Amino acid sequence: MNLQKTAGLFLTFAFLLLARHSALAMAGELKHPSIGLPENTPKDVCAQIIRALDDKQCRFLDGHFINASTTLRYGGQTESLNRMLAHLVECNFFKIRIRFTKQDPGVSWTINHNAWADSENLQILLNVAAETIELEKLELPAFGKNTAR
């Protein structure tokens, strides 16, 4: 192998090593429901949101985050989802989007939130395959930020 090829391989290896180091991100598993919110979010609103997400009857299964993107999975029944939706609407913080999907039957609904992309957007994926969800009992309140009551 000549010196030029050896130097090229060394530089390539060094570049890949440096590029790999700068690409690391913050990620982890969640044992309790939580989402990222802007620093200027009022403390009472933050507490209200966490109370809604941490309702024990909603049966938080697991969650994970990568930087400011969070996924929370729940195994609760329709009534607990109705209560969570009502509490989230009362926060008057989120634009809530509900989508109907088919997922693993053990998951009743999933919440996705990305604080960097749009901290006021909350997506709820309702699992129509879940045995604990009865669509005819689902109560969709008038919701969204600044909803007139």
Mean pLDDT: 85
Characterize the largest beta sheet: strand count, sense, and whether it forms a barrel.
6 strands, mixed
What is the structural class?
alpha+beta
Q: Going across the major beta sheet, what is the strand order?
A: 1-2-3-5-6-4
- What is the N-to-C succession of helices and strands? HEHEEHEEHE
Strand content: 15-25%
The percentage helix is: 25-40%
Distance from first to last alpha carbon: 77 Å
Instruction: Note the overall shape.
Output: globular
Number of helices: 4
**How many separate structural domains?**
1
In the predicted model, the low-confidence regions spanning at least 5 consecutive residues are: none
Please count the beta strands (DSSP E, at least 2 residues each): 6
Can you tell me about this structure?
The protein is built from four helices and six strands. The chain has 149 residues and is an alpha+beta fold. It has one domain (26-137). A six-stranded mixed sheet has the order 1-2-3-5-6-4. Helix 2 (43-53) runs antiparallel to helix 3.
Quick gist of this model?
The chain has four helices and six strands; from the N terminus they run αβαββαββαβ.
Give the SSE layout.
Blueprint: H1 3-22, E1 27-30, H2 43-53, E2 60-66, E3 69-74, H3 78-91, E4 95-101, E5 109-114, H4 115-118, E6 121-127
Parallel strand pairs: 4-6
Antiparallel strand pairs: 1-2, 2-3, 3-5, 5-6
Helix pairs in contact: 2-3
What features would you highlight for this structure?
25% strand; 149 residues
